[in-house]
Write a structure and sequence with these properties.
The chain is α/β, with parallel strands linked by helices and about 525 residues long. Helix content is about 40%, strand content about 20%. The protein has 13 helices and 21 strands. The chain has a seven-stranded mixed sheet, with helices on both faces. The chain has a five-stranded mixed sheet with strand order 19-6-3-20-21, with no helix packed on it. Helix 8 links the parallel strand 10 and strand 11. Helix 2 packs across helix 6 and helix 7 packs across helix 8. The longest helix is centred in the N-terminal third of the chain and has 24 residues. The C terminus is likely disordered.
């Protein structure tokens, strides 16, 4: 049996095995147990699931030291950032407890029987209900917030779907401890086995998405990894949705007005955004458009000054380390590309690299020179006119984010660039930086292909929508209706005969419901 072990980014050496690769039989048993837990999660209702998520959050906080220690050993991210990320993970659980209690995510709607211009209408009552067991594949760069304890898990559990997790090969021990933390909380809350499950190994991941009981897949990772899973899903008898966050360049545009007003300040902010977490963020600005001329030069000078001589934490794993070397190496060999800054020589071995910054004239830019590079690197594109900017921007693939730094008197230009951004990205940032994705009601963490392959967000309240489907009850006896669709005033927003009714908040909602 193949054993599962991570590697230390600090040394590059393999760590002790933490599990055995899950067999096809192991995967099937895990999914079947999850299928049995599905009815339990529905039966405890919104309040029951809210309390479950809060119990998980509490147990995450109680086991913080062990979780952070394991994650730092396997990822090299450092305890400071991991401490903040773990707080985000427990916050996400509590946030979705709030989403459950508020209730509007169900989109409850009632049209009572009556006459219409089209003739008699039956009594129709619509609600969203959970779809069933869900598979979740976390990312390497966020071992807590986008992995086993992450937003896909929180939103799926909130919806009422059991979750089977594929342990990430870069942090299998962190995945194992994270799973145990959630499972213990679920059992302590009175829940059965199967509310959460876990499998190990690449083959197990393919078996997982191929199992007929799996009703959706959440994935955060590379375009290649996502493509392999989508291919496996395509061979199923029953197609299921695949929600992938895949690849993003996150272009950042600095206009002439912004460069004139605060060029050096923008340059300093960019240096931090490019190198934070060693540049291993899905929202890192990978391509930066800067106007030609003195003001743009001052911005680039501030950026290169901060980046030159800087050091970063190790990269997460050997694959990312080798990819970074290949992508930066190709840029350095291109005669149209200039290396304008390089960080300090790293001290120690492992997967450490030097931050790098490149520059090219917009007129010489080609699509082949722009690809996602996980690591502390970016390419600056110097443009001479708005026409040249727009032409160069068209070579950049659609992204999770697009950032605009504009001047105070550039309202018309800001509007034109915003209109471009609306068609090219899921989140548009003004005079800020894309790194950092707040968990909130209004957040969108998604975008057009290839950043994602769906219309949904993976962060924020509406991430729960991925794991729900609508059902309408026509002329149904009240006794069979979900409590949220019965006559009366349950404490959640409902649309009744076209009018949105928002009742005042009241206490816990403990009646079992879908």
């Amino acid at each position: 049996m193949t054993t599962i072990a991570g590697s230390s980014p600090y040394t590059g050496q393999a760590l002790e095995p933490v599990a055995e690769e899950s067999s096809a039989a192991d995967v099937a048993k895990t999914v079947e147990i999850a299928g049995e837990a599905f009815s339990y999660l529905q039966g405890i209702g919104r309040e029951g699931r809210a309390r479950l998520l809060e119990a998980i959050a509490d147990n995450i906080d109680l086991n913080a030291d062990e979780l952070i220690r394991a994650a730092d050993e396997e990822t090299g991210i450092g305890t400071a950032r991991l401490t903040g990320e773990l707080k985000r993970a427990s916050y996400q659980m509590r946030f979705f407890a709030e989403v459950l209690r508020e209730g509007s995510y169900l989109e409850a709607a009632i049209d009572t029987a009556g006459d219409t211009p089209m003739g008699p209408r039956p009594d129709l009552r619509r609600i969203l209900q959970p779809i069933g067991p869900v598979a979740v594949f976390g990312s390497s760069n966020f071992p807590f917030a986008f992995s086993v304890l992450g937003g896909d898990t929180a939103s799926a559990l909130a919806s009422g779907c059991p979750v089977i997790l594929k342990a990430h090969s870069s942090h299998p021990n962190t995945s194992k401890i994270s799973f145990a933390t959630m499972a213990a909380a679920a059992h302590a809350s009175g829940g059965p086995d199967g509310i959460v499950g876990i499998v190990y190994g690449q083959k197990a991941g393919t078996e997982l998405v191929s199992h007929p009981l799996i009703q959706a897949v959440g994935f955060t990772g590379s375009l290649g990894g996502g493509g392999a899973l989508m291919e496996a899903i395509s061979r199923r008898d029953q197609p299921v949705p695949f929600y992938g966050e895949l690849s993003s360049l996150n272009p950042l545009i600095v206009t002439a007005g912004a460069a004139a007003e605060r060029g050096p300040e923008i340059g300093q902010g960019l240096a931090a955004s490019i190198t934070t977490s060693a540049g291993q963020l899905c929202t890192k600005p990978g391509v930066v458009f800067v106007p030609a001329g003195d003001n743009g030069d001052k911005l680039v000078a501030a950026l290169t000054s901060d980046l030159s001589g800087s050091t970063v934490s190790p990269l997460l794993n050997k694959r990312i380390f080798e990819s970074y070397a290949a992508i930066t190496g190709a840029l350095e060999k291109n005669e149209n590309v200039e290396q304008v800054a390089v960080g300090a020589e790293p001290v120690g071995g492992g997967f450490r690299v030097r931050p790098t910054l490149y520059s090219i004239d917009a007129a010489r830019l080609t699509p082949e020179l722009i690809e996602e590079c996980f690591g502390p690197s970016a390419i600056i594109v110097r443009y001479k006119s708005e026409t040249e900017l727009v032409s160069a921007l068209a070579m950049v693939e659609d992204s999770l984010t697009l950032t605009l730094h504009t001047g105070v008197n550039e309202g018309d230009l800001t509007a034109r660039l915003t209109e471009i951004g609306r068609g090219r990205a899921g989140r548009i940032i003004y005079n800020g930086y894309p790194t950092g994705v707040a968990v909130s009601w209004a957040q969108t963490h998604g975008g057009p292909w290839p950043s994602t392959n769906s219309l949904h967000t993976s962060v924020g309240a509406t991430a729960i929508r991925r794991f729900l489907r609508p059902v309408t009850f026509q002329d149904a006896p009240e006794a069979v209706l979900p409590i949220e669709l019965r006559d009366g005033t349950p404490p959640l927003p409902r649309r009744i005969n076209g009018t949105l009714i928002v009742p005042p908040r009241s206490g816990d909602f403990t009646v079992p419901c879908a």
